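Worked example 3 (structure in, sequence out).
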């Protein structure tokens, strides 16, 4: 498998690992999302000063308003964070380049 294929597989595996906790592996409940973010995105979660960050993230992403995230609803979080990371990466490169 290629590096990108591995990344996609990891993403799917991580989603299902946490989604499976209540027996319904197709969706993440708020509790499962919180666990996933605490374990897999601790750095991002630390930058969120709002203690209800997970709640508002869930609300933002939950398209069909069932208070759960399916894989399709979960992906924009990863995409959004990746875009933010990429910006930081570019910024970081620029900064170190200037020095
Ligand atoms: Ca679940
Ligand atoms: Ca939903």
């Amino acid at each position: 498998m290629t590096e990108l294929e591995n990344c996609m597989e990891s993403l799917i595996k991580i989603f299902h690992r946490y989604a499976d906790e209540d027996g319904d592996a197709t969706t993440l409940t708020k509790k499962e999302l919180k666990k996933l973010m605490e374990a897999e995105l601790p750095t991002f979660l630390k930058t969120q000063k709002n203690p209800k960050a997970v709640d508002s993230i869930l609300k933002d992403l939950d398209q069909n308003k069932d208070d759960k995230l399916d894989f399709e609803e979960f992906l924009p979080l990863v995409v959004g964070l990746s875009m933010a990371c990429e910006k930081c990466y570019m910024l970081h490169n620029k900064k170190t380049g200037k020095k």
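Notes: The chain has one domain: 3-98. The two ends are 38 Å apart (CA to CA).
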